[in-house]
Amino acid sequence: MDVHESLLELIGDTPLVRLRTPGDDHSARLYAKLEYLSVGGSVKDRIALRMIEDAERRGLLKPGGTVVEASSGNTGVGLALVAAAKGYRAVIVIPDKTSAEKAATLRALGAEVVVRPGMLPIDHPDQVVNTATRLAAEIPGGWMAAQYDNPANPEAHYATTGPEIWQQTEGRITHLVCCVGTGGTISGTGRYLKEVSGGGVRVIGADPDSSVYSGGDGRPYFVEAAGRWRHPETPEDCWPASFHQEVVDEILPVTDRESIMTIRRTARESGLLVGGSAGTALAAARRVAAGLGPDDLVVAVLPDSGKQYLSKYFDDGWLLRLGFLDGDPATVRVADALTDGERARPLPYLHRHRTVGEALAELRAREAAGAEPVLPAGPAPVGPSRRPTAPELVGAVRLVELDEAVAAGRVGPDQSLDEQLGAPLPQFGGGESAEQALATLRSAPDATAVVLHDGHAVGLVTEEQLRAALGRP
Ligand SMILES: Cc1ncc(COP(=O)(O)O)c(C=O)c1O
Predict the structure, then answer these.
(1) Which of 45, 177, 182, 308, when mutated, tests ligand 1's pocket best, judged by the most ligand atoms within 8 Å of its CB?
(2) Residue numbers of the domain that contains 273
(3) Is the CB of 247 under 6 A from ligand 1?
């Protein structure tokens, strides 16, 4: 019989498919490795199985034990699936930006899901990895998979992904392109392919453009699970032990917009529905292939399916709200209400660790200049002129509230603003209709909103400016 006795036999062994994009005029062959066809739906099934079996062998995970992990979803799903198949309990800690589909999948597989804010510095006790480490220590029989530092992560790819690609291409692969999250995929697969080819395979990382791996400033981005961002208040960053940098020849930065537009186009033009980090890998792989000839064969590893992101990258409303779509040019859009001068200046906002006295002075100066006495607030940015990413703006500071707090003696002018942050300002994508934005602002407490372009805050817009752009009195 052509049957499998265990679900675990259906992990990995994924196909390679040729990708031909209309308009591409290079002669190199580009193949995609479809990791979403693994039984749990992602590249992470491979490491889940390997890490659990390794822990069993070492006696770290025993019958009745609990698998604990911090995961943006896919590793959690892989672990929950293997744990269910083997009879373990699973507790998965996820950052709050994880897509709703991934969180629902974890719960459906019987895992207990713990959600923590994604926007915390690395040494904060509630940060996702710190939360998981604590839970693993507290739960009797708990074992933390620790994908970022577990050698079984790259080993899984050295033992399976690498050999599969070598056999499937009959040793003809010349370039490997992968995203780098924990670094497990690129390190294990890349190391195997380099060894077996005698150094003939070039290994290229594909990275969100602000990720620190490709030299970015570490500000957050919207492609999930790839790259490494760094909270501005994280004092010193330490790269994961699962990432073996010496295996990687080059890392190419790819913007969120390019990753997202690549998967939308690939879905429509080739019928291949893949996730955001697959878009990062595909965009980089196309760039690599463009400079190559007919003897070259590029393999891009596509980590998961687009079905997990239907409410994000494939949802026009989500894209419009974050400023990834430019909106209908026949209507007045929110961005039309900003002047060229406002677009050129960095967004005015308050660093959460400045003093109450400084904030009061700034808000009074705004009021005197006729502007709304309210400003968005967030962590200090890494570079002086960089624009914050939407999720970094975690609150707002309002003159009335601050004055009240000082008058009531709840805070002094030399104290930090941090405890005084009020609810964040509304945010609009620059391509959203100015009419609709105006209607929303009318019922909001402040007459001011933040305008986003490609997920970054680029300016502040007031009710008055929107009305002027619409030609209303
Ligand atoms: C969707 C997705 N893309 C990319 C990656 C990065 O892979 P790796 O952690 O092996 O570097 C992951 C892993 O978390 C993932 O889930």
Answers:
(1) 182
(2) 7-42+152-314
(3) no
Kindly compute the dihedral angle of the four CA atoms of residues 345, 349, 352, 358, in this order, to the nearest 10 degrees: 100
pLDDT one-digit tens code per residue, 80-137: 999 999 999 999 999 887 878 888 999 999 999 999 998 888 889 999 999 999 999 9
> Which domain-ending residue is among 262, 291, 314?
314
* Ligand 1 atom having least distance to the Cα of 243: 11
Is any atom of ligand 1 closer than 6 Å to the C-beta of 70? no
Q: Is there a domain that residue 2 lies in?
A: no
Question: What pLDDT score does 383 carry?
Answer: 62
Average pLDDT over all residues of the chain: 94
Closest residue CA from atom 4 of ligand 1: 226
**What's the structural domain count of the chain?**
3
Residue in 69, 153, 244, 277 to alter for ligand 1 test, most ligand atoms within 8 A of Cβ: 277
Question: Domain check: are 17 and 115 in the same one?
Answer: no
Ligand 1 in reach of 179 Cβ (< 6 A)? yes
Q: In terms of domains, do 172 and 284 share one?
A: yes
Q: Is 226 in the pocket of ligand 1 (CB under 6 A)?
A: yes
How far apart CA 155 and CA 187 sit, in angstroms, is: 9
Instruction: Give residue-wise pLDDT tens across range 128-187.
Output: 999 999 999 999 999 999 999 999 999 999 999 999 999 999 999 999 999 999 999 999
Decide: residue 351, CB within 10 A, 0-12 exposed, 13-18 middle, 19+ buried.
Answer: middle
Do 217 and 301 have their domain in common?
yes
